[in-house]
Amino acid sequence: MSQITPGRFTGKTAVVTGAGSGIGRATAVRLAQEGARVVATDVVAERLDSLAAELADADVTTVVADVSDEDGVAAVVDAAGGRVDCLANVAGIMDKFLTAHEIDDATWERVMAVNVTAVMRLTRAVLPLMLGAGAGSIVTVGSEAGLRGSSAGVAYTTSKHAVVGFTKSCSVLYAPKGIRVNLVAPGAVRTNIEAPMASQFAAERLGPLMQVVIPPIAEPEHLAAAITWLLSDDSANVTGAILPSDGGWSAL
């Protein structure tokens, strides 16, 4: 694990989605430890209560909200109080490894809403604040499934390819305004996102050979280190990057 850098985010306000567990929680904790004022949002109140208790001595505001919904986005932006220096789009869901002929409308629409629309809506909402400040950093958590087609079901794979395109477009359009937009692409991470091996596709992909050669499961803190680096001024010359943080999984 990398070392905490005290004061790296002092004076900055950071919004983190999916902050109640997994990568989002680890990111919120690290940002708070490095001096940020953190606006932490999740759909589960109990998770946020636990986070707030862990960070009782830090400047943390929790917001129970679904950021795929405009009202949820508005609640998060209101809690930020007119300033957002950093945005970590972490919240995401899986798709049960369903293929195109298996996918149902409800699963497709919910995966797209959480993994793509929520990213767009919250990014859209904070950009005016960043434009006004002339600076900002946005990091979205994608997936190595956004780099190829053999890692997940059709909805999840499509959603993660979509946020790669969203990241690249935003990075080009907002770089002249002092706003950096990047993406971290994890492989397997020890989180509470459900990924049942429900289809023949998944069973075939994760056969005996793949189980031998895929890298070990990462800890959320590994991803938090990459996310906070991209959010920080340490990566001041980095924008439009699609950074695999997957132990080499995408190189297989």
UniProtKB/TrEMBL annotation:
<protein>
    <submittedName>
        <fullName>NAD(P)-dependent dehydrogenase (Short-subunit alcohol dehydrogenase family)</fullName>
    </submittedName>
</protein>
<comment type="similarity">
    <text>Belongs to the short-chain dehydrogenases/reductases (SDR) family.</text>
</comment>
<dbReference type="InterPro" id="IPR036291">
    <property type="entry name" value="NAD(P)-bd_dom_sf"/>
</dbReference>
<dbReference type="Pfam" id="PF00106">
    <property type="entry name" value="adh_short"/>
</dbReference>
<dbReference type="GO" id="GO:0016491">
    <property type="term" value="F:oxidoreductase activity"/>
</dbReference>
<dbReference type="InterPro" id="IPR002347">
    <property type="entry name" value="SDR_fam"/>
</dbReference>
<keyword id="KW-0560">Oxidoreductase</keyword>
